[in-house]
Structure formats: structure tokens, C-alpha cells
Write a structure and sequence with these properties.
Layout lengths: L2 H4 L3 E2 L7 E10 L9 E11 L4 E5 L8 H12 L7 E6 L4 H6 L23 H13 L5 E6 L5 E3 L2 E5 L4 H14 L3 E5 L11 H7 L3 E6 L8 H17 L15 E5 L5 E3 L4 E5 L6 E2 L4 E6 L9 E4 L4 E7 L3 E2 L4 E8 L4
The structure holds calcium ion.
């Protein structure tokens, strides 16, 4: 049996039919209140003749809304007659997490973006990962997984790629990143150091597909500025892939490409307490500069604890909630990259 045939999820759409199809991917889940029911994961498929396939995913983390809004807008505004090839839109990939407005699934606490390549007979979130990895990604040429900071983090909106060890592949990813046309972007080291990348983009890499991610903002909210960046970017990805005609490219901006490297790019809470940031998102900071303080309002006369940046960089991401536990990520930096 092929890997795809091992998935238990049943799409209501036929990915090979021409035109527009709206429907659900049925994830059967037998519970006390619904013995024979399914979880309805929405999907939109647009197809017009032969050509490349783009797979656009959001709601991989349920509390990241910018991508979900952008894909709702795209699903309604893009017409099959405009494209050559196919666009698959999956706006709420982890549907139970999306409906709950949570990063993880309320059913199995599954963090979808830590579960690839998934398990066909596993928990609901493992089954979703398996379906995306073994059914959707293999039919795609370019994969965009739209994330943001979610409830606990806020990013300067940007697309991102993972640095590939293969220079030719890296150049292709960099061209895709620049086609997106955002003012800021970053690339990360890629992988988690164990040889298996448990993210959706890791699945695209395993299948040899071009992939691009985003971090579009966060704080459990949507901003017009982030939407402008992602909606233009997705159109331009479709042009870059040859699915939309060149005439539909939207003028982008020159992209400042940052690099996010090892542990010294990240700042963590040294104590439990209330987090006072002393820098803003988008600032350039120096090694040793004070990043913030942890306060102890339950003992207001106790001295606060200062913490510092471990390297020079650009403040790409900060924590949102004030109440903080030791080990929470408070900031992460990017550094200007030589790009190539
Ligand atoms: Ca995310």
C-alpha cells in the first residue's frame, strides 16, 4: 500500500478535477457525543489545466490568524480561469486547534508543527500531519506554511526559508523569498539537529519541494500591515511558480534578509516574574545591552533581575504576555546576512 493510501483522512474534493472545489477533508473521530462523526478540515482546490501546484497552509498553529485571514481572502478572490495549474488552500490545517484559538489541539494537545511526518493510525494531530506529508505535499511543487507569533510572541512580519546544504536549492529558496517582496525576511539554520525535521517545511524538504514559511506578527491578532505583506507575497509566489501570469506580479520591496542562528540569538527569562522589555521590535541592539528586567510584584522591594542580549542583532521577535516563567523565550534576534 502506498503511503498516501495509508492515510485515514478522506477528502470530499477530487484534486484532479478542473475548476473550483470547496469542501472538507474528513478526519473520522469517534467520541462520546458523536459516534460516527468526522472533524471537517476545510480545503479549497482551484485547477486549470496542466501546470505547477502550490499548497498554501495556515492554522498549522490554531492561534495564528494572519495566514488564516489571507487564505480566506485568496480562496474567494482567486479564479480558476486566472491560473495555470493548481492551487490547494488549507486555511485551518489543525482544525481543532483553530476552532479553539489555541496553538495545540484541545483533543490530543498535539502541536501539528512538531509531528511531521505523522502517523496514519496515530492521534488526530498525528493523522493530519501524515495526510499533509504523504498526500498534499507530494502533489505540490511549492509549499507555503503561514505562521505568526501566536498568543505568546510577536514578530516583525516576514517570510522565511530554511538554509539548505545544497547551494542550488538554497539559491532557489532565496529567489522564492525575494519574489515574495516583503521588506524583511529571514533564514534559519533548518532542521532540529537530530536529522529529522518535524515541521511541515521539513516535510516539504524531505519531498524535495520548494518551501517558504512566514512569521507574520502575532499576539493572537491580525494587522492590516501584516495582511498587506502576506497577500502580496502569496500572489507573487504564484507568479514566481508560473501559476499566475507575470502581469499579475505586485510590486514588492527590496528585502533585507536576516539570518537566525544558534542559541545566542535567543534570550530567555532567567526567573519567574513579570517581564519588562526595554527595547522594541525592530530595534538594532548590541551584545551585552540590557534587554529587559524581571520584576517580583509580590515582593515589590526585591531587586529586579536584568538580562542582556548575547550578541548584536535586530529584534525580530518578542514575548507578549507580561507574566513569565524561567525558560520562556523573551526575544529573538536576526543578524544581517550575506544572503548567498
Ligand atoms: Ca507558529
Amino acid at each position: 500500500m502506498s503511503d498516501a493510501a495509508r492515510s485515514r483522512l478522506i477528502p470530499e474534493v477530487d484534486f484532479n478535477v478542473e475548476g473550483r472545489q470547496n469542501g472538507f477533508i474528513r478526519l473520522f473521530h469517534s467520541v462520546h457525543g458523536s459516534a460516527y462523526g468526522f472533524i471537517p478540515i476545510p480545503v479549497v482546490v482551484l485547477k486549470n489545466g496542466d501546470g505547477p501546484t502550490a499548497l498554501f497552509v495556515s492554522g498549522n498553529h490554531g492561534d495564528e490568524y494572519e495566514g488564516q485571514v489571507a487564505l480566506c481572502n485568496l480562496a474567494k478572490s482567486l479564479e480558476p480561469a486566472q491560473i495555470k495549474g493548481r492551487v490547494i488552500i488549507l486555511p485551518m490545517a489543525n482544525f481543532p486547534a483553530g476552532m479553539a484559538g489555541r496553538r495545540t489541539s484541545p483533543i490530543d494537545e498535539g502541536n501539528l508543527n512538531r509531528m511531521f511526518p505523522g502517523t496514519p493510525d496515530g492521534t488526530v494531530t498525528q493523522q493530519i500531519a501524515f495526510f499533509i506529508e504523504h498526500v498534499l505535499i507530494p502533489m505540490s511543487d511549492v509549499v507555503c506554511d503561514l505562521h505568526s507569533g501566536g498568543s505568546s510572541l510577536m514578530y516583525v512580519p516576514c517570510p522565511l526559508i530554511k538554509r539548505s546544504a545544497d547551494p542550488g536549492r538554497h539559491a532557489q529558496h532565496l529567489a522564492l523569498l525575494e519574489a515574495f517582496g516583503a521588506p524583511l525576511a529571514y533564514m534559519s539554520g533548518g532542521g532540529n539537529g537530530t536529522g529529522t525535521d518535524s515541521t511541515l517545511m521539513g516535510g516539504a524538504e524531505r519531498a524535495g519541494r520548494l518551501s517558504l514559511g512566514t512569521e507574520l506578527g502575532g499576539a493572537g491578532a491580525v494587522t492590516p500591515a501584516a495582511l498587506r505583506i502576506v497577500e502580496r507575497g502569496l500572489r507573487n509566489v504564484l507568479v514566481h511558480a508560473g501559476i499566475l501570469p507575470e502581469a499579475m506580479r505586485l510590486a514588492g520591496e527590496a528585502t533585507r534578509v536576516l539570518e537566525v542562528g544558534g542559541p545566542d540569538y535567543f534570550t530567555y527569562a532567567p526567573e519567574n516574574g513579570v517581564f519588562e522589555p526595554v527595547v522594541e521590535l525592530g530595534e538594532d541592539v548590541r551584545k551585552g545591552q540590557i534587554a529587559g528586567r524581571i520584576h517580583f510584584p509580590e515582593t515589590p522591594w526585591a531587586p529586579s533581575v536584568e538580562f542582556h542580549f548575547a550578541r548584536d542583532g535586530f529584534v525580530l521577535c518578542k514575548r507578549v504576555p507580561g507574566r513569565t516563567m524561567r525558560g520562556d523565550c523573551l526575544f529573538h534576534l536576526g543578524s544581517d546576512s550575506a544572503a548567498g
